């Protein structure tokens, strides 16, 4: 089993443990170990042979034991048990997703809003991952604490982007926004601004506990907006700490499919939203998906290879995921 596949096993264990508030710390340990595997890509077989798995960052004796079994058998009985306890389907992974064919991430942040790195560092990070494109999608003005971007700042950002693009020619930078879906479903920037951007991710961040009927209206309005390309972390949940929004998922997903608006599978271990179960429902209703890291620092790009199991468990084929499109195909899809 290759290192990325092993990282996905640890990531899924972390995700399942996270559903139980008492297991919060163990969940974080598994997610952290998965992350370090996805970043470092160590030769697990060699480390296991030398009895050195615990030399990996974030891998203590307990996780090393799980990892040893994965290296030896390609399988984890601990994961099987957790799936059973959490009433997850026992079926094996259904779709074939190959991270080597992943073309680029369309949802990321920089210091222009709440990211921790400059756009140049993010672009270099994407180049290091082998990506062909990167969507730089900082926040919109509504969320004051993250210094969201209005039209003037977007213009200033586009100038910096041109400079960064010249320095990192291998990765095509797409200027985008993660625009807030306001309480009534309107978006936090005027159409004439959204229209100029390469990629528009509309996300619910606040007032997630709205009544389901109002929340359904809000999300229906957002998915039918002509400039929206992707709905970011569609429920806003944080497993183990915050319940997500509740709405008529079937109605909203159907409408998203009708408008060719993709639903995001956000691989940040604190989000993992949509869940595999909900993503499967969306798949059956005809939706396409964006599989991204929502990275706020270059190292977070590794959330995608470790979190890819979510899309696989949902049975989503590669051709329904935006990030497997070539740049030309993606540009057409985003028009
Ligand atoms: Zn967000
Ligand atoms: Zn984001």
Key attributes of the depicted protein:
14 helices; binds zinc ion; 335 residues; TIM Barrel; DNA polymerase, domain 1; seven-stranded parallel sheet; single chain
Plain-language structure description:
- It contains 14 helices and 7 strands.
- With 335 residues, the chain is of the alpha/beta class.
- It folds into 2 domains: 3-85, DNA polymerase, domain 1; 99-333, TIM Barrel.
- Strands 1-2-3-4-5-6-7 form a 7-stranded parallel sheet.
- Helix 1 packs antiparallel against helix 2 (24-40), helix 1 (3-18) runs parallel beside helix 5 and helix 9 runs parallel beside helix 10 (249-258).
- The longest helix has 17 residues, at 24-40.
- The mean pLDDT is 95.
- It binds zinc ion (2 copies).
- Residues 178, 203, 205, 232-233 line the site of one zinc ion.
- One zinc ion is lined by residues 107, 109, 178, 232, 294.
Task: Give a short summary of the structure.
The protein has 335 residues and is an alpha/beta fold.
């Amino acid at each position: 089993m290759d290192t990325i596949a092993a990282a996905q096993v640890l990531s899924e264990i972390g995700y399942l443990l996270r559903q139980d508030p008492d297991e919060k710390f163990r969940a974080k340990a598994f997610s952290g170990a998965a992350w370090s595997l996805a970043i470092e890509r160590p030769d697990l077989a060699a480390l296991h042979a030398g009895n050195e798995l615990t030399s990996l960052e974030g891998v203590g004796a307990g996780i090393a034991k799980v990892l040893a079994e994965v290296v030896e058998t390609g399988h984890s009985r601990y994961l099987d048990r957790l799936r059973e306890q959490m009433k997850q389907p026992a079926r094996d992974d259904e779709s074939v997703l190959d991270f080597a064919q992943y073309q680029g991430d369309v949802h990321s942040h920089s210091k222009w809003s709440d990211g921790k790195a400059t756009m140049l560092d993010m672009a270099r990070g994407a180049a290091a991952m082998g990506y062909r494109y990167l969507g730089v999608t900082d926040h919109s003005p509504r969320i004051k604490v993250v210094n969201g971007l209005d039209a003037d700042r977007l213009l200033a950002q586009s100038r910096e982007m041109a400079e960064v693009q010249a320095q990192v020619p291998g990765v095509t930078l797409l200027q985008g926004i993660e625009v807030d879906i306001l309480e009534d479903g309107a978006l936090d920037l005027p159409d004439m601004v959204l229209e100029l951007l390469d990629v528009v991710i509309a996300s619910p961040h606040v007032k997630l506990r709205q009544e389901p009927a109002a929340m359904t209206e809000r999300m229906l309005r957002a998915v039918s907006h002509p400039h929206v390309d992707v709905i970011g972390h569609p429920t806003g949940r944080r497993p183990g700490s915050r319940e997500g929004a509740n709405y008529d998922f079937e109605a909203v997903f159907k409408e998203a499919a009708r408008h060719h608006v993709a639903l995001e599978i956000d691989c940040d271990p604190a989000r993992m939203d949509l869940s595999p179960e909900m993503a499967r429902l969306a798949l059956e209703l005809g939706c396409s998906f964006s599989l991204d890291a929502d990275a706020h620092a270059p190292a977070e790009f590794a959330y995608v290879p470790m979190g890819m199991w979510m899309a696989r468990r949902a049975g989503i084929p590669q051709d329904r995921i935006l990030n497997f499109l070539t740049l030309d195909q993606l540009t057409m899809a985003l028009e």
